[in-house]
């Protein structure tokens, strides 16, 4: 028998503590889908699992019984290991840990798993002879190996909550929470040449629409303008991020756009606005300010300057009425 454990560099001397270290390594390698975990077990290892009739005698049966483990990626938290008994030949280790599926998985699942493990001394190294796993809280439905349906619903709920936190409920665009939560990445995005533009938009006449034609039409105006911006940005600019920063104000970050593309974007927005918004109300129009990004410029500074220029445009439009 090849005793791989004899090559593990233990930080402890006695057999019991070495068994604890081996237990930790087995669970770590299980989480990482590392097949070396099997080298830490006896060929005739026995396994009792948390599922009904889950029992295995020998490595091959054990592998078959937990093969679904390797369909998911998970991490371990809050690990507790107790050395219940040991002498020179055997060691009994028990404890518990939290299993949490990673965010990349299609389901969300977190549960506490309890274990007891019997190790025997084989050529001076602890090998797993028996393991018993149990779940204090069993959410598994009939026919499932994992509580997949529950976890899938929970993952959707979590994703929906995250989306609602960073996406504007009315327009579907990213919101200010998204801007703040992802500021570092957005700032890095604008920091490499060729340097593009930041554009700030504001709807004119929204208050008049709300007062004279009702808030329902005002909401429709906001939604249609958001779609105008998004459609124009996707069509004209290769890479861009469109946000509703609040109320009737919108932001387009185009990190590598050219001045020609900004001009084309503005023309496209006007075209979309005429089709989607002007027909809703004669009071509606929009103002825009933009900033050409430069080396070393912070995104928040660029947004602030674009906002300031947008208000100049807004004041000019008012003066022409």
TrEMBL record:
Instruction: Write out the catalysed reaction.
Output: 2 GTP = 3',3'-c-di-GMP + 2 diphosphate
Q: Which residues form the GGDEF domain?
A: 194-321
Keyword annotations of the record: Nucleotidyltransferase, Transferase
UniProt xrefs under Gene3D superfamilies = 3.10.450.50, 3.30.70.270
Cellular component terms per the entry's GO annotation? plasma membrane
A GO molecular function held by the record: diguanylate cyclase activity
The record's section on CDD domains has: GGDEF
At the top level, the lineage of the source is Bacteria
Record-linked PANTHER family? DIGUANYLATE CYCLASE DGCM-RELATED, REGULATORY COMPONENTS OF SENSORY TRANSDUCTION SYSTEM
Name by which UniProt lists this protein: diguanylate cyclase
